[in-house]
Every structure is written in C-alpha cells, then in structure tokens.
Design brief:
It is globular, with a radius of gyration of 22 Å. The strands form four sheets. The chain has an eight-stranded antiparallel beta sheet with strand order 14-11-13-12-16-17-15-18, sandwiched between helices. It has a five-stranded antiparallel beta sheet with strand order 4-5-9-7-8. Strand 4 and strand 5 form a beta hairpin. Helix 8 crosses helix 16 and helix 9 packs across helix 12. By secondary structure, it is of the alpha+beta class. It contains 16 helices and 18 strands. The longest helix has 17 residues. It binds flavin-adenine dinucleotide (FAD) and 2-acetamido-2-deoxy-beta-D-glucopyranose (NAG) (8 copies). The site of one 2-acetamido-2-deoxy-beta-D-glucopyranose has 3 residues, from loops. InterPro entries: BBE, FAD-bd_PCMH, FAD-bd_PCMH-like_sf, FAD-bd_PCMH_sub2, FAD-linked_Oxidoreductase, Oxid_FAD_bind_N. GO terms for molecular function: FAD binding; oxidoreductase activity. This is FAD-linked oxidoreductase YvdP.
Length: 491
Amino acid sequence: MHPLAPLSALLGLAATSHASPFDQADTLTDCLTKAGVPLDTAGTPDYQLDVASFNLRLNYTPVAVAAVNTTKHIQDAVACASELGIKATAKCGGHSYASFGLGGEDGHLVIEMTRMNKVVLDNTTGIATAEGGTRLGHLAVELYNQGKRAISHGTCPGVGVGGHVLHGGYGVSSHTHGLALDWMVGATVVLANSTVVNCSETENPDLFWALRGAGGSMGIVSEFRFKTFEAPANLTYFVAPVQWPTEARALVGLTAVQEFAKTMPVELNMRLFIARRFVNLEGLYYGDKAGLQAALAPLIKTTNATLALAKTGDWMEQVKHFGGGSNIDQGHGHEEHETFYSTSLYTKELNDEQLQTFVGYWFKQAKNNTRDWYVQIDLHGGENSAVSKAASDSTAYAHRDYLLMYLLYDRVDKGEYPAEGHTVMENFAGNITQGMEKSDWGMYINYPNSRLDQTDAQTNYWGSHLAKLQGIKKEVDPEDVFHYPQGILPA
Ligand SMILES: Cc1cc2nc3c(=O)[nH]c(=O)nc-3n(C[C@H](O)[C@H](O)[C@H](O)COP(=O)(O)OP(=O)(O)OC[C@H]3O[C@@H](n4cnc5c(N)ncnc54)[C@H](O)[C@@H]3O)c2cc1C
Ligand SMILES: *[C@@H]1O[C@H](CO)[C@@H](O)[C@H](O)[C@H]1NC(C)=O
Ligand SMILES: *[C@@H]1O[C@H](CO)[C@@H](O)[C@H](O)[C@H]1NC(C)=O
Ligand SMILES: *[C@@H]1O[C@H](CO)[C@@H](O)[C@H](O)[C@H]1NC(C)=O
Ligand SMILES: *[C@@H]1O[C@H](CO)[C@@H](O)[C@H](O)[C@H]1NC(C)=O
Ligand SMILES: *[C@@H]1O[C@H](CO)[C@@H](O)[C@H](O)[C@H]1NC(C)=O
Ligand SMILES: *[C@@H]1O[C@H](CO)[C@@H](O)[C@H](O)[C@H]1NC(C)=O
Ligand SMILES: *[C@@H]1O[C@H](CO)[C@@H](O)[C@H](O)[C@H]1NC(C)=O
Ligand SMILES: *[C@@H]1O[C@H](CO)[C@@H](O)[C@H](O)[C@H]1NC(C)=O
C-alpha cells in the first residue's frame, strides 16, 4: 500500500490545492507531527544551525525542517511534502557552495540528515555502510578505526557524504583511486513516492547509475554501501611553491604543469593552487619522500618549484593535514561559513593560444582583484588517472575524460560580497573557454555556479549524460519533488 494513504485520509489532504509553500506551513507541520517526524522548529539552536548556509552570500528560508533519525522519518517527510506540492530537499553536510542543501531557493521542506551518521564496516568483506547524513571526516575516522580501511574523497571533514559522493567527490587520492562515487556499491533510497528501494549494479541499475553523479535529483539516500581499500601506511603530502613573477614565466610554468598532467604517475595526486599572492603545487604521493622526489623531478626542473614541505605518514595523518587541522570527526553540530562567489570548469589540454589567454587574464585582470581569490586546478585526468580510466559512461558523472578541473573562488573576509563581484571569476572562466566548442568544456555540480539558469546548468554539469538522466528522472520523480534550481528536470 502507498504509505501516504492513511496519512492523507487522516488529514483530509487529498484535495489540497498547491498554494505557496509558506501558506501551507501549518498543514505541513501538522502532517509531519502526526506522522511522528521530529522537527527543528524556528528559534531553536538546532534550527539556527540547520539554516545557516556554508555560503553566507546565499541564504534561503525553508518552510520547515524535518530532523530525521530513521528511513521511516524520511519516507513520511517526503510523503507530506509531495502531497502538498512542496519541494523536499535532503541536507547532509550543508556545504553546497550554492546552498542546495537548503533547496537553493526559499520554501522547501529541508530534511536534515546529520543525526543519521552511523558507519559500520564489515571486516570480512571490506564493505561499509554509512547512513545518509554522515560527514566525510566521520566516515574516514570510522573506516580507519574499525579496520584500517578507506575510500577516496575530498578534503574538508565537514562536507557531507550525501552531497559529495552523489555528485562526484574528487580528492587527493582520486588520481590513484578514482572519485568517491567509484567506491559506492549500493544504496538504500527513498523515492519521490515515498517508497524505499535498494539499488546496485544488479538491482535498479538505472537508479544506481543516476545516483552516482546526479543523486540529489533522484531520491534521498538513507544509507550508502561502499567498498573500501586498505589505508596505506606510507603516504607523503607535499607543498611545492613556484615563483612566476612575470606573465612569460607563468606561461612556461603553466604549460609545463599541463604537459606533466598528461602522463603523471598514478601514485601522484596534485593540484596547482593559484592565489593572489602565491602559487603552489600541492598534493599527496602514495609512497615515501624519495619516491615523491623522483616522481616530481621532471616537473621541478621545468617549473622551478621548491619542495618546501614533504612529510611522510599514515592515512589519518594526511586526512588531518588536508582537513586543515580542525577536528576531523565531525557530526551533527558542525559550523563553518564563508562569503563568496565561485564557479568551475573542466577542460581538455589547452592549446598555446588558450594558455596565453589564461595567463593574460590572470596577470592583467585577476591580480588586480584585491579580494581573497584563488583558482585551484586539479590534475584530474591524464593517461594514468583512475578517474579517466573508468569508462566515461560507467556512472552519471559526465566529465571523466577532462584533463583539468578548476575551482574559481572569490571571497570576502567580512561584510557583504559586492553585487558585481562575480564578474572577475566568471570572466576568468569565460576567457579560458572563449572560442571552444560547447562540448569541449564542462562544470562540476559540486563546485556550482549559482548564477546559471537551469538549462545551462544541466548542460554544463551533465553534458552528454543529460538525456538519459532526464529519462530516469521522469521514471523516479515525474513531479520533480526533489527540485532545485540547477537540478535535472524530468524528460
Ligand atoms: C570547505 C569545502 C571543501 C570542499 N572540498 C571538496 C573537495 O576536495 N572535492 C570535492 O569534490 N568537493 C569539495 N567540496 C564540495 C562538496 O563536495 C560539495 O559542496 C558537496 O555537494 C557538499 O555535500 P554536503 O552534503 O555537505 O552538502 P549539502 O548542501 O547538504 O547537499 C548538497 C546537495 O546534495 C543533496 N544531498 C545531500 N545529502 C543527500 C542524500 N543523503 N540523498 C540525496 N541527496 C542528498 C542535497 O539535496 C543538495 O542538492 C568542498 C566544499 C566545501 C564547503
Ligand atoms: C532522534 O534522535 C535524537 C538524537 O539521537 C534523539 O534525542 C531523539 O529522541 C530521536 N527522536 C526520535 C523520534 O527517535
Ligand atoms: C577489523 O580489522 C582490524 C584490522 O585488521 C582489527 O584490528 C580489528 O580488530 C577488526 N575488528 C573486528 C571487529 O573484527
Ligand atoms: C536493502 O538492503 C538492506 C541491506 O542488504 C536490507 O537490510 C534491506 O531490507 C533492503 N531494503 C529493501 C527495501 O529492499
Ligand atoms: C626557472 O629559472 C630559470 C633561471 O632563473 C629561468 O630562466 C626560467 O625562466 C625559470 N622558469 C620558470 C617557469 O619560472
Ligand atoms: C614506501 O614507498 C616507497 C615508494 O615510494 C617504497 O619504495 C617503500 O618500500 C615503502 N616503504 C614502506 C615501509 O612501505
Ligand atoms: C585595477 O584596479 C583599479 C583599482 O581598483 C581600477 O581602477 C582599475 O581599473 C583596475 N584595472 C583593471 C584592468 O581592471
Ligand atoms: C574576458 O575578460 C574580459 C575582461 O574582464 C571581459 O571583458 C570579457 O567579457 C571576457 N570574455 C569572456 C568571453 O568572458
Ligand atoms: C514508486 O516509484 C517507483 C519508481 O518509479 C515505482 O517503481 C513504484 O512502483 C512506485 N511505488 C508506488 C507504491 O507507487
């Protein structure tokens, strides 16, 4: 039986018209309360935590916040929302740059997941289950403590597994071990009609495919299942600053980094971090310092980089290093904020003219921006990258073949972000892709550009996978219950 049937009978909801979500706030709260779904109500400290977006530039007001503990709570919350025509949004770590965990607009039912963060490792199979509200740092700690296991994922311990894994998950192990979503082997999902299904390569395989890249549009994952690898005991994290005082030097250096990316050894994971006042090569090497030095030697020669830091340690040491020194084991009450605009890009190998345009914009325009900006370029692809080695259509993540992945980020330390501030980074990206075919670049939904309309967003994030995703969306969520302004629309 449809789980909503008794509920709607109880509340007389069947004939409700779909008015503004805020007009229906009381009806929604009644429905949730009668179903036994815990709420974080306005004015409570928990509510304040829930609605405080990571990016303080983009604040949204939910119609209600369901503070779920169980899969049944998620089902009932989704049923109440969909019956009233209110959009439902899972919030895990709440670290979306465009505040998609709050729905990316006002008036959503936010389903706050972070009380569901149990992680259990099966020591005999190496398969772990993690509830859908788990943060990355907690996952890393638990996998390590329960059996010295790990998956590949991004660096920030407060980021949620929900948003991160379901949309990619690129980190300092990804060149060696692939994306976070490559470690997902199954999930338990609440669908828009409030039923629960499992999915894997063999069970509901289309849903499983779509979850791994566009999960936020498809359902709410209440539990992830991950395969894991043995956490290595011999890793070296490093920072290698470069001095490129002139445009000419930067052009030679950037060209050399790109060339190196094409054949970089699989053990090396690296990004070029361009900030206003410094430029670093930084990353993680699977092996000791001598191995790192040998791997980097050709690049050090062509870029004049200095290996300023190279420290060998075990898995958790590098997790802590890249986690920025804060507490790694983050749970429900985590708080972290910045005020910024950001956008992203993937490109193939840039040609000489494109490299010149890049460096020209960097030195003549970006350097003139006195805010705290950076451009982080992950050496994402190349012939040895585990991300690019997997078949490009193996998951919904559409951008495996790109060599470089850019995050362009511009923040203010205090006060408001200026109204026209976005032009600096938007034009930076625009100058790099100028003249390229639309099919020759993409964007990363985990580094979203909040200014895109839904049509451009879908094309830029999901490229050639979009049509298939819209077809699956029509099957699992025809009414777009899990709507957000840059999500997949049903075919
Ligand atoms: C400090 C910082 C560092 C970062 N570093 C990296 C990095 O190294 N590599 C990288 O790839 N990315 C990185 N990111 C980006 C990060 O991966 C994304 O912001 C990610 O989407 C955040 O996930 P979340 O669960 O915290 O976000 P939320 O805002 O809670 O959710 C983001 C989206 O996922 C959906 N969602 C969340 N949970 C679920 C669920 N259980 N089921 C279905 N949908 C769900 C939400 O509805 C929303 O659409 C970083 C972000 C920050 C803020
Ligand atoms: C949900 O979990 C919280 C914290 O673990 C607990 O205090 C609360 O009683 C639980 N609520 C329900 C309805 O299970
Ligand atoms: C799991 O494996 C680890 C490492 O081999 C071991 O230390 C630990 O005791 C095991 N835990 C259980 C519950 O078997
Ligand atoms: C999903 O799989 C889990 C773990 O195997 C199992 O406990 C659960 O009953 C399954 N749920 C459904 C709806 O099939
Ligand atoms: C490296 O240093 C040499 C010698 O100072 C210089 O000629 C060259 O331009 C530098 N290269 C880069 C990329 O900085
Ligand atoms: C550490 O890694 C290097 C390769 O960089 C390898 O030669 C060495 O044997 C490893 N040491 C240990 C203790 O595993
Ligand atoms: C650089 O910044 C200054 C002061 O903020 C401004 O007057 C100038 O027009 C800027 N130059 C460019 C090329 O943007
Ligand atoms: C390139 O940058 C310039 C200077 O900021 C800007 O005027 C122009 O619109 C940008 N070009 C593109 C295609 O974005
Ligand atoms: C719920 O939606 C799924 C996916 O479209 C469908 O397979 C299932 O039959 C639906 N269940 C009910 C009870 O409507």
